[in-house]
Specification:
By secondary structure, the protein is an alpha+beta fold. The chain is built from 13 helices and 16 strands. The strands form five sheets. Strands 1, 2, 3, 4, 5 and 6 form a six-stranded antiparallel sheet that branches. A three-stranded antiparallel sheet has the order 7-14-15. Helix 7 packs parallel to helix 11 and helix 9 runs antiparallel to helix 10. The longest helix has 20 residues. The two termini are 35 Å apart. Keywords: Kinase, Transferase. One of its GO terms (molecular function) is kinase activity. InterPro entries: AGP_Transferase, Aminoglycoside_PTrfase, Kinase-like_dom_sf. This is Kinase-like domain-containing protein.
């Protein structure tokens, strides 16, 4: 089974303020605008073999409409069409982002053994038989980690479950560690410029990130925001924080939260001549495929891939191990939504983070693994800066790290800053 087969409906958790109806309307508009007979023509011409497309049953990614292309000899491709791939919504920056994604995937494929899909063909224009920008990639087989995470041969055997999880995490760690060889002096999307010897020269341009849609703050057609490029992590996070400020006036509580978030960002250690590294843009369980043995067989969904701060780069914890640090989406305990996603307990997640840190120590060595140890704190700050709806509960958690159970009103602001500096320093002490 492939990851695409698992995604039978748009995952809405990434855009919690946007209604399912609006998303489905967006997908419906895109489906009306494209010509799938043209996709058949394109794929058949490229491979020289006839093919079919399941027109009535597309798959919905977070920001892509996906069609399975099946050739007469059984070979399978996936066609990914950007959700905003209609003429009135697709701009030059979007075309550059799609090109960057395709060429970065090829770059990773050529320079590592990470199982990314082969990019067969891409078109960033509307001047094609499909009538929309698209990406044609190979179809990878495997089970998404989110499906395999609780699957064992014995439902009651926790030893088997623990062993299976460790195998998956070890495989994920080996995959992500390969990205350590790719770094850049700026944070942003990658741009590839052909040279006379047909090789591709790597340089970094503006970072374009997936923008959370908030109906109260943005028009429905706003899906992306251009920021950067950046030389320092603090500049990046400060720009995210400023970019997420709502148009409406903030009350005293919200303003106070903003000031605390700024203090946290300003407390991040400054690294001279900071280097930025490649990282998967959505490092979560739905995008990593494994086989029955727990070995990673595919890494999908590279939309928005770019260089990122090392604090939250390739060596950070996988997203499914840090759920407890984003309380708004953590479906556990007294706040659990009935029939919602089953979550690991905070104790289990702490144990798994220690395991993954140990794995990255083995893969990267002590010096490089220092970026792993408390990466969940930096990830939480990034989420708070990017998503105003998530920030309140995250800031409360981070305050508990800095202040313990003390009374904030009694603390001096300089003590608060020093506590954050201590918490965010890359040390050998893991913060649970």
């Amino acid at each position: 089974m492939s990851e695409i087969q698992e995604k039978t409906s748009p995952p809405l958790s990434n855009r919690s303020s946007t209604s399912a109806d609006t998303l489905l309307e967006d997908f419906a508009a895109l489906r009306k605008a494209i010509f799938l007979d043209g996709l058949i023509t394109i794929a058949s011409r490229i491979r020289g073999v006839g093919c079919t497309v399941d027109v009535e049953n597309p798959f919905y990614g977070s920001f892509n409409l996906i069609y399975a292309v099946t050739f007469l000899d059984g070979v399978k491709w996936a066609a990914r069409i950007p959700l905003h791939g209609v003429k009135e919504s697709f701009h030059d920056s979007d075309a550059k982002a799609l090109k960057s994604q395709a060429l970065t995937m090829r770059f990773i494929k050529q320079n590592t053994s990470i199982p990314v899909p082969d990019v067969i063909h891409f078109d960033t224009t509307f001047d094609n038989a499909l009538g929309a920008p698209f990406l044609l990639i190979t179809w990878l087989e495997g089970i998404p980690i989110y499906s395999a995470w609780r699957k064992t041969s014995s439902f009651d055997d926790h030893t088997i479950l623990d062993e299976r999880r460790e195998k998956m995490l070890r495989s994920v760690g080996k995959v992500m560690a390969q990205l350590r060889f790719l770094s850049a002096p700026k944070l942003g999307e990658l741009d590839f410029e052909p040279t006379n010897d047909t090789n591709e020269k790597l340089r970094v341009k503006d970072f374009q990130y997936m923008h959370s849609l908030h109906l109260e703050e943005h028009s429905e057609d706003v899906m992306f925001s251009d920021i950067g490029p950046f030389d320092h992590t603090r500049d990046f996070l400060s720009a995210l924080e400023k970019d997420s400020i709502p148009d409406r006036p903030l009350d005293d509580f919200a303003r106070g939260q903003r000031e605390l978030l700024k203090i946290m960002i300003d407390s991040i250690p400054v690294v001279e001549h900071e280097k930025f590294v490649l990282v998967h843009p959505d490092f979560d369980s739905q995008n990593f495929l494994v086989n029955e043995e727990g070995t990673v067989t595919g890494v999908l969904d590279w939309d928005g891939v770019s260089t990122y701060p090392r604090y939250i780069g390739y060596s950070r914890y996988p997203g499914w191990l840090t759920r407890d640090w984003d309380p708004l989406i953590y479906n556990y305990g007294e706040n659990r939504i009935p029939d919602g996603k089953e979550e690991d307990s905070p104790e289990t997640l702490r144990k798994l983070r220690k395991m993954y840190f140990s794995i990255m120590q083995e893969e990267l060595g002590e010096d490089e693994a220092k970026w792993t140890i408390n990466s969940h704190l930096f990830e939480a700050i990034e989420i708070a800066a990017r998503n105003p709806m998530n920030s309140s509960s995250i800031i409360t958690l981070l305050l508990s790290v800095a202040l313990g159970k003390g009374d904030l009103a009694e603390e001096k602001i300089n003590i608060l800053k020093e506590k954050f500096r201590e918490a965010l320093a890359c040390t050998t002490h893991i913060i649970e």
